[in-house]
Amino acid sequence: MTTTDSVFQRVLSNMLTEVFNGPPGPEAFVLNPGDPGLLRQLDAIDAKAASARPSPAQKTIAAHADHVSFGLGILNRWAAGEPNPWAGADWNGSWQRTTVTEDQWRTLRETLRRDVDQWKKVVAARTDWDDMGAAAALSTAAHTAYHFGAIRQILAGVKSAR
Q: Fewer CB within 10 Å, N- or C-terminus of the chain?
């Protein structure tokens, strides 16, 4: 591993930890210090709130969580050696879960957590970064941060409606 690769891998691993689990210390680069991160934020939301739609144009929190999990699942399959897991991927289908029961919501969060843990292990173990690997890993942080922000906006709308 080159020095550049090791710096990239370390910084990226920290960034993924921050987005998914919250900043590990007082320094934060994407979220605010003390932020819970996506996984703990979702754990604090019940199925009713995860299924709420403050406006007809908005997707639900459950749909965002399912979409993030779907994308991570594809990346994990690619990292495991599947040559083109994007072929035939039903991205529209990843938005179809709009309502969840408490059991479904718990299962969705557990699946997302497993997908996150698997992807973070892939990133932590990678020693050689080519363009595709770096782009996939960086896009994970950016894509998740985008959906995390959308979830926060939906949650604010749900809370104000109550």
A: C
